[in-house]
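Query structure, 567 tokens:
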């Protein structure tokens, strides 16, 4: 037997002995009372036998025994209930103690987390940390002297407070981390941004569209022969700006076709494809309205400015091979059709040629004629103005059916190459409608102090201005005949700067000989050669006034006349 249970057994034995004595006493009492009560009966009923008396005595003893047994069972039940109650209380106390230990552990962990995640510099001071620890410590329940139920309630409350403190600490650290980092929420771009490109791409204002500019109707816009259908041109300051612009143009259905870095012009040229079957001009005009800071336009087509006739070159008073011209290292550039460098007029000439043609090359007649005016050989019967100069020729014109044309992207590539070759002046015997992309590229060329000469156009006196001749900074040249009369098909306009020979000029062809050419295309090389050896101010002062006094829309400053070059 367990020693701890021995006293309890002895106690129960004593209780049973006492209870047995009490039962005997009570039984005797009952017997005595029975005798008193039933005495008269026995006296009155003498006929009762001894057997009946014995049965009464046995009945009384049996009843007494049953009472004793019932009392014993009641006592045992009470003892069992008392034992169960004590066991339950012990279990509750044990559970409360476990809760207290867990709560204290969580509190300690919370205080440690607060110390690690909330440095003194972020929470204010060490006093704030101490106060927080005291607050957590004060929230711990005092369970030593409380009942089991009170301990359990206090432990639960402490656990709730610890969890709340832990959550508050986590929230504080999260807020501090969020405040220390910049916001990464994506900003929804506007549907049409007002100014997506901030770089200033122009050095001077681009002239506005002519008042009478002919804009093709919507029904035949894509069939217009003056631009590449379903194409959009864009020039940007750098590659980052080009990619940014492309993201905006995608909203109009424009998809990048080609992108070229024009390092010498300081530009990036992009060509986009527009949705097939939609009005190219309408889309581009909408883009130009919505995004005015983007240099966008059609991929314009340009035509040669000639009338399939030729011209002569003696009117301007050009000196016959003066030594001062021959000794200078002159370098001029031409953008035209291919040049037949094997032509007798160009044999021995210093010519560097490169093609930027996309498609079938056009005939070399026009380019070869212009080249012969500039550097032709006198021995072959073609007296060039600058026979000793270096000529750098960029071919851009293609043959498309019956038309000879060049596109804007090929022109930009050619301009960039000529800038790289460090030419001093560029001859453009071509023209078309105004194009903002080409205008931007020419602005970059002019900014490098390279002169640009362009033919004024052969569309007649009432025609709209021709570009790039009409662009500010470009020197436009019209044509006159041998008598000084203005070419009747030449354009008129305030953009005209000079007149030069351009009617029936003898120049090389694409074969082995030559013929006469007419048009402002063949007047342009005269001014190009003059600017290679003189400056614009000298030429303006020396020009022979024609038409109304002063500068006018027909002759400009007047007929080109060479100043004395060798004094």
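Result returned for the query:
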């Amino acid at each position: 037997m367990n020693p701890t249970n021995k006293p309890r057994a002895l106690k129960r034995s004593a209780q049973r002995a006492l209870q047995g004595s009490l039962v005997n006493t009570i039984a005797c009492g009952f017997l005595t009372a029975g005798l008193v009560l039933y005495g008269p009966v026995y006296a009155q009923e003498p006929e009762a036998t001894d057997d009946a008396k014995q049965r009464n005595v046995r009945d009384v003893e049996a009843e007494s025994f049953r009472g004793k047994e019932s009392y014993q069972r009641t006592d045992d039940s009470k003892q069992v209930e008392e034992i169960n109650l004590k066991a339950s209380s012990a279990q509750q106390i044990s559970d409360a103690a476990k809760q207290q230990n867990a709560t204290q552990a969580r509190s300690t962990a919370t205080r440690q987390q607060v110390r690690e995640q909330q440095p003194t510099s972020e929470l204010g001071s060490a006093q704030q940390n101490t106060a927080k620890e005291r607050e957590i410590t004060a929230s711990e329940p005092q369970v030593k002297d409380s009942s089991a139920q009170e301990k359990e309630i206090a432990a639960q409350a402490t656990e709730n407070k610890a969890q709340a403190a832990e959550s508050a600490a986590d929230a504080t650290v999260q807020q501090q981390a969020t405040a220390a980092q910049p916001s990464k929420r994506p900003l929804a771009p506007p549907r049409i941004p007002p100014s997506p490109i901030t770089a200033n791409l122009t050095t001077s204002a681009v002239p506005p569209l002519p008042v009478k500019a002919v804009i093709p109707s919507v029904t035949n816009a894509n069939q217009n022969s003056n631009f590449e259908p379903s194409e959009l041109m864009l020039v940007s300051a750098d590659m980052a700006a080009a990619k940014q612009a492309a993201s905006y143009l995608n909203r109009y259905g424009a998809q990048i076709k080609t992108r070229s870095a024009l390092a010498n012009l300081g530009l990036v040229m992009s060509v986009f494809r527009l949705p097939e079957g939609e009005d190219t001009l309408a889309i581009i005009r909408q883009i130009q309205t919505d995004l005015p800071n983007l240099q966008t336009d059609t991929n314009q087509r340009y035509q040669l400015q000639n009338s399939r006739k030729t011209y002569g070159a003696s009117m301007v008073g050009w000196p016959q091979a003066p030594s001062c011209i021959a000794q200078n290292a002159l370098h001029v550039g031409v953008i035209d059709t291919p040049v037949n460098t094997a032509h007798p007029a160009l044999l021995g000439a210093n010519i560097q040629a490169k093609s930027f043609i996309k498609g079938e090359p056009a005939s070399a007649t026009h380019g070869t004629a212009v080249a012969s005016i500039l550097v032709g050989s006198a021995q072959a019967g073609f007296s060039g103005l600058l026979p000793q100069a270096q000529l750098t020729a960029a071919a851009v014109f293609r043959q498309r059916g019956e038309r000879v044309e060049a596109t804007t992207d090929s022109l930009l590539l050619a301009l960039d190459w000529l800038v790289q070759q460090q030419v001093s002046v560029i001859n453009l015997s071509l023209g078309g409608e105004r194009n903002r992309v080409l205008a931007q590229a020419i602005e970059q060329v002019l900014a490098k102090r390279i002169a640009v000469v362009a033919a004024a156009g052969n569309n007649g006196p009432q025609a709209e201005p021709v570009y790039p001749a009409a662009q500010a900074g470009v020197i436009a040249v019209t044509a006159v005949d041998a008598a000084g009369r203005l070419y009747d098909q030449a354009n008129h306009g305030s953009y005209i700067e000079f007149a030069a020979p351009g009617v029936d000029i003898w120049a090389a062809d694409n074969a082995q000989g030559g013929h006469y050419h007419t048009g402002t295309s063949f007047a342009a090389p005269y001014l190009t050669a003059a600017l290679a050896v003189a400056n614009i101010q000298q030429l303006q002062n020396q020009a022979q006034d024609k038409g109304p006094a002063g500068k006018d829309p027909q002759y400009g400053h007047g007929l080109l006349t060479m100043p004395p070059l060798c004094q």
